[in-house]
Every structure is written in structure tokens, then in C-alpha cells.
Amino acid sequence: MFMSAILEIFSSIFYFALHVVNTGAFPRALSRDEEAFYLDKMQKEGDLDAKNKLIEHNLRLVAHVIKKYYANGYDQDDLISIGTIGLIKAVNTFRADKNIKLATYASRCIENEILMYFRNAKKSAQDVSINDPIETDRDGNALTLIDVIADEIDIPENIDTKINIKKLKGYMEESLTPRERMIIEYRYGLNGKLELTQREIAKKLQISRSYVSRIEKKALSVLYQRFSANEESKKA
Question: 168 CB contacts (<8 Å, ≥6 apart)?
């Protein structure tokens, strides 16, 4: 998993953990004027708090879209994670001049993200690792897929991602218990761990899936607060 994708997943779970799990309810939907106000501040001023508000107050869309999927046996928490990534992408890319409501656009993005997740899961058995050799160079050295695509990577974005990942690892070491770190590492494939579902982690650790879910959400809430505190210190 690319590091930018990891950060996006963490961001999605942070909002769900803080605003749904901890309060037991979804935040109310924004009025049209409120939505327009926060969109304007986010898009014109790059206001992070405005972006957070738009995500937070549209989380109910995620729950609405995923209902038809977890009823068919899919893991609800995994679908919430994937669906909220779609919501974040929707908020990031939405343009008011396209004559479409944010809720309509976001619902499409959420469903697209979930469907893409299902398609990728079906193809996973045939996936080629980016570290597998695909050819050799003129000196006979093996070239991997990551070597070939490296030139296409956005260098500034890549550097920023690495900085955030370094912060994330530091926060995990400082703020999480060993068990919390282990569960987060397995859930998101960090530090060389194989990415697992909550049920797979529960089986591995011989605890219940609901207990894994509670530990995960508590840990993500702690990490979110550390990132938020860091952002606030930058503004000061």
C-alpha cells in the first residue's frame, strides 16, 4: 500500500472514531448556507477546520451507502473505512460550479470507492508486487515495477507523505500501547505487517472482533488528537 493511501485511510477512520463512535450519533447535516460557507473557506483559504466540518457532517452518507453491502456479509467496519475515503475524496474534489449537490456527488464517490475496493479484492490473487523484478537493465541488474514508475511520482508530495508517515510512527510509539500498535499495524499493513481485517486480527490474537474494533478506534482517536495538536501548533 502506498504511504499516501495509508494516510488517507487513517484520516477517514479518525473522523468516524471521533464523531460517531464516541458520540453514538451522526452529526446533523449542514444547511445549504453552512455548506456553502465551509466550502468557500476550504477552497479559497485552504481552511482545514472547514474541510473537517464538511467531512464530519456528511458521515451519515457513508452509513447510508454501505447498508446494501454489509447486509450481504461484508465487514461493516471495513466498509465504513473505505466509504469514508470516498467521502474525503469527494470533499477534496467537489466544485460548486458543476451544478450538483455535494451530497449527491459524495454519495457517488463513496459508492465508487467501495466498488473499486471490491474489484481490487477480486484481482488481489493476480496482483504483481511492485518489488517483483520485471526486466533487467543494460548492466544485468533487476528492475522492479517501482523502479519503472518512480519517475512519475510527485516528488514534493512524496516528501510530504514521508514526513507525515514519520510523524505517524513517532506518535504510535509515544502514545499507543504495544497491543494498540500491533492492531493498527496489522489493520493498515504498516511496518512490514500484512494488512488484515478485524476478524483476521481477532483470530490471530485470540480475542473477539468487537474487542479489536474498540481497540482500533481508541488508538485512532488518540492518533487523530496528536495530529490535530500538531496542526494547531503550526497555526500558533
Answer: 7, 10, 223, 227
